[in-house]
Amino acid sequence: MILVNLKCYPEGIGRGGLKLARDAERASRETGVCLGVAPQYVDIRLIAEQVRVPVFAQHVDPVLADKNTGAVLPESVYDAGAVGTLVNHSERRLELAAIDECIRRARQVRLTSLVCTSSPEISQAAAALRPDLIAYEPPELIGTGVSVSKARPEAVTDALNLVRETAPGLPVLCGAGITTAEDVRVALKLGTKGVLLASGVVKAKDPYGLLLEMARACT
Amino acid sequence: MILVNLKCYPEGIGRGGLKLARDAERASRETGVCLGVAPQYVDIRLIAEQVRVPVFAQHVDPVLADKNTGAVLPESVYDAGAVGTLVNHSERRLELAAIDECIRRARQVRLTSLVCTSSPEISQAAAALRPDLIAYEPPELIGTGVSVSKARPEAVTDALNLVRETAPGLPVLCGAGITTAEDVRVALKLGTKGVLLASGVVKAKDPYGLLLEMARACT
Amino acid sequence: MILVNLKCYPEGIGRGGLKLARDAERASRETGVCLGVAPQYVDIRLIAEQVRVPVFAQHVDPVLADKNTGAVLPESVYDAGAVGTLVNHSERRLELAAIDECIRRARQVRLTSLVCTSSPEISQAAAALRPDLIAYEPPELIGTGVSVSKARPEAVTDALNLVRETAPGLPVLCGAGITTAEDVRVALKLGTKGVLLASGVVKAKDPYGLLLEMARACT
Amino acid sequence: MILVNLKCYPEGIGRGGLKLARDAERASRETGVCLGVAPQYVDIRLIAEQVRVPVFAQHVDPVLADKNTGAVLPESVYDAGAVGTLVNHSERRLELAAIDECIRRARQVRLTSLVCTSSPEISQAAAALRPDLIAYEPPELIGTGVSVSKARPEAVTDALNLVRETAPGLPVLCGAGITTAEDVRVALKLGTKGVLLASGVVKAKDPYGLLLEMARACT
Lengths: 219, 219, 219, 219
Known about the structure:
The structure is a homotetramer.
Chain A: E1 2-5, H1 15-31, E2 35-38, H2 44-50, E3 56-57, H3 74-79, E4 84-87, H4 96-108, E5 112-117, H5 120-127, E6 133-136, H6 148-151, H7 153-166, E7 172-175, H8 181-189, E8 195-197, H9 199-202, H10 207-217
Parallel strand pairs in A: 1-2, 1-8, 3-4, 4-5, 5-6, 6-7, 7-8
Helix pairs in contact in A: 1-10, 5-7, 8-10
């Protein structure tokens, strides 16, 4: 799986996000590999209605459908067409108990929960909460173009082993600094089930071409 | 102005929010009074595209168009069709400096900023930051059905006077516990320019009928 | 081990805290059981200098000795005579990565880290970060007088098993609602190494008498 | 007034903080100028008992004397001998309503509240809440050695004018980058009642000599 986090990048807003989602859809159709996007909240419905890609929220709040002005309600994210949500991204860190609550709330409304973690030990901690997916991303490499799979292969392996110890079968992605098809290939060889990436694709000259190469690296 | 905050109420999600927005639109058309809605982020575009009412975000994050995974980017909210945003709602309180940043960022992207405040003194503090609107809501009355305009008329007057002292001409709304047209009438008589309300309308049996009565109370 | 969290209770400030610490010291001397206190930050040195009990901070910030105005620096807590710190109390919840940082920083300055957890799964998550101690406290029982050891014995057992699976040998305390020596006896019988308590002792008529009974229940 | 914020600097912990407080005491005795310190919480009592200088907390939490594990209770800070507290330092920013609560709670327990602000407008906002003192510090100059009084004299004047408009007579300090007696002299000439400083003194080779010069610049 390749999940493209559009963050708050200007290239990923509105039509820009729609175009990136279409690039992902095309690359997916040509390769059979699962490619998804995590756009701004306001763009979830736009993309989910027009493009056949799995759409993730970048975050949901672990609140109930009640007051909570300003919160991102899991139900509303699901209603808009998302299939999952990031949880605890390093740019949106959550309290431990809130991660647990997010995973439960996501499950309740049938959203896939993908918990982001910043070290092998923290990956094991997240695994204890039984999310649907984990994405290990050393925060110091995020946005650098220095790929986690190449710069920290042993850390990825550690994360995989620790997660396996606590929750065998729980799929682990990796992320941070991933910009080439080769980075993806190495990530899969290490045992991950895919990658979480952002600027590498969002700010690429030819996002479609790059996604296609990355998807081919998965087959 | 009557602004309906849909919060995370189940009645206000997706089609529910769309219906409430249409109720507001109809009441507005019949009376000429400005009625708006503040839906979940994911519903902003849906409503803004299909209904002719001013749409407000319930919150924006004072961040730039860059990384910031999980943040609500002012640009994306504007792109989705919103005309404004709540800032510092009592269920989404912000640091003082962040309120200032939100007001500036909102202005930059042409969103009207409506700062919520919880006491007359805090209303004056907010006025010093020159938002476009202030809504004074005593938090202890929110959701109670006991209206601020009737239970705390002197506090509303204090808020108005203090805001006027610092920023003459800055329009002030009031909110909390407003459930009837009479509450709205009293609020206007006190000198406010309108009301911010939520459950009173969202959970009403006949939201359209109530909004119409409230709008008529404004004329 | 019996650790008395003085929280912000008025009975535990200054001289009050000193007296409670002396009660713990006396009960410890008579029974050989380890009794400690977690007072307000400003009282750590006062108690550590005058009373022979282990003193814990109620929290430390995972920051370095640099700017960080307003933070509770682990080094300063150690310098004042504390031997340990609570981490992630349910009234002071921390981000997952911050818990990890607190444990590391505490270790660095030779403070014992006691991570508080609110469910069996969250206890296992905490165990993955290898703190020195875990205290499992269902938040809904805190301050109720309904003891976790009696009301939720199976949850305590679950927590113990899950922690053991990830970190064999890591001592687990339990807390919430503990007010009698019998509660302590049951907690130990379940396999915990002690209890974390607060109002039950701090607001007791005869804290010394109660602590003595509780300590005897440990022998 | 000259207030030295010891932050989390290693030079200001324990004995280090005590020594700096004694330096301030000596400089105060020789000049008649009021010099104070804001140490780590754990050092408040140590310094207040042994040195005749006004001691400020770096922060207090706006909570009541009840549960609230990990909070800094205003009552306990007062009990330890502090005379005041910083509120909303740029390294410990608070929600607008929390600033209001801190000011009230501080007043209740007879602590002087000194609210830190980061722009002229935010200074006026803070003034609306009627604290005892305001310290205007442009965050981008903090710790730089480039003094606010010299680099931004017009911003200091703006802050003074805006505060005066809302709360005539409310004393304003300034801070950020202040490292020399000349910086202090300029700050006073602009109309401030003193300075808030930190690294400039804490990390000086001869803190006493520098404080003495600065105090003399006030006379």
